[in-house]
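step=predict obj=AbrB family transcriptional regulator n=80
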Amino acid sequence: MTYQTTITSKGQITIPKEIRDILKLDEGRKLEVELEREKREIRIKPAPDILDLAGTFKPKRKIIDPVKIREMMEKMYQPR
């Protein structure tokens, strides 16, 4: 799909409604703008939302079972 849009005096462009609907772009959504200097083109895409990143990073430490943590704490802090 190809659309035409106009740059305003403030350097803004309007993304056509059909594209906003397809990409689910709501008001206030952050976008990434990438310049391909050699081709003299820009590429615009939705910036990743923090919720999109959920689960993509592995924890640095091994996850310990909460029950085991409780047992370890009870052993360490038994009254004398």
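step=describe
DSSP finds two helices and two strands in the chain.
step=end
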